[in-house]
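Exercise: predict the fold of this chain.
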Amino acid sequence: MSVKVQKILNIAMILISFSTIPFMGLQNIKRFLPISILIGIIEGIHALIGKKRRWWIFYNKPNSYFFNEFPFNIGVFLIISLWYMKWSYGKFMKFLLLNAIGNALFAYPFAKFARKIKYFTLVRINHLQFFFYFFSKVFLFYGLQYLFEKYKKTN
């Protein structure tokens, strides 16, 4: 894949993701955005660790976080996490199931497709480990949202 095509894909991921926000409702955005941003920051740190350890590589240069992983974090992952919370907060098993399905789709068919189109490829981790890399944050995400809700009720 050329750098130009990757730039277009990156921009499209962000724009398409953010175009769904008006359907979410302002109350849901206010309620779930702080913890979603916090988890996004944690994911960004984990992505830097993964890049340093060569768990995956992106084919195109520049080999920077902002050109490669950032569009996923700020676009797809941030917005999907808001939607998952909107659809399932208060129903932990539903939240786990939604995240498991979404993470499995990303770790298996999407990662294989990304390799086929030469977007990125997994190097030092396999698809199952890639799945758990994302899924491990689910418990932290839900727990932090729970604590945030509890804190808001006491104040």
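Check your answer against the key: The two ends are 51 Å apart (CA to CA).
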